[in-house]
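Give me the fold.
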Amino acid sequence: MYVAVKGGERAIDNAHAFLAEERRGDPSVAELSVAQIREQLRLAVNRVMAEGSLFDPDLAALAIKQARGDLIEAVFLIRAYRTTLPRFGATRPVDTAAMAAVRRISATFKDVPGGQVLGPTFDYTHRLLDFKLMAEGGAPEAPRAAPAEGALPHVTGFLGQDGLIEPQPAEDTTPRDLTREPLALPADRPLRLQALTRGDEGFVLSLAYSTQRGYGRTHAFVGELRIGTVAVQMDIPELGFAVEIGEIELTECETVNQFKGSRTEPPQFTRGYGLVFGQSERKAIAMSLVDRALRWRELGEDFTGAPAQDEEFVLSHCDNIQATGFLEHIKLPHYVDFQAELELIRRLRAEAAAGATPSLAEAAE
């Protein structure tokens, strides 16, 4: 129970002013601009866009600045802003096979049509601090090839030609929109994927790691990981055809998972899938592993009790805004509640000192 606190407006205003001062930092140091955050902290911007369910690098960079670098607070700001935006319609599903890819790798086949494209990645760095960056010197210009354009067939398609991997399910119905409807359980796969793509990266990563350690029966290979831009198209009823209204950057991961068969399915490879705004490959890989673990029921597997297999546990706890709100509310005034608990403890101690052991019913009164 909360109680009204009178006379706190001035303290709150002062706290806001103090926050703004702390956000600015030392005035003798040049202020960080939104453009600098957008261009130089792009991975943080991408995470805020993904978990905030809004693709807008400028707004995500502004939210990061306003939140003093607290990415969860920035996600909260973006989600709150998104609720104020009108919705004019729905776009067509994006075609990731036509992605202009700057990075595209496969851990299952060395030679794939279109080739392996390493792109910008930390994979081959030495993880040593580069003190040259403190000198604020210009970065060397890297040799750059044009993004791979045209159709880049998905690696899993080659396995599908031989019937070695489960076919992609035909889905003609429009999935429910998690940004407009509350989560309902049991959830179908499209709804689960929505929850995972906007779920907290650390939480999804930990669940994915647990599946690799044996909690979920997921032995996965990265069939393909690709990063690039895709066209966004929207049907215009007045025109009778679709027009391109822009493009967005995405990270897509398809995992190929070992499957020995079940009571309903033959031995074959199965799929895990991840799709995230921006360059967010750790999140996309983790998402695909958890997606596969959650599919145990539709594949006829046994439930082993692994956390990553528990739909209610995963989907009800992966959202960092809900988790933050519930966790941080305990720092708000609970004076009446605590006084009641304090009185109960004092009474129990007094009765215990007097040699009387009250029943649970008496203690609850």
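Residues 333-364 form one domain.
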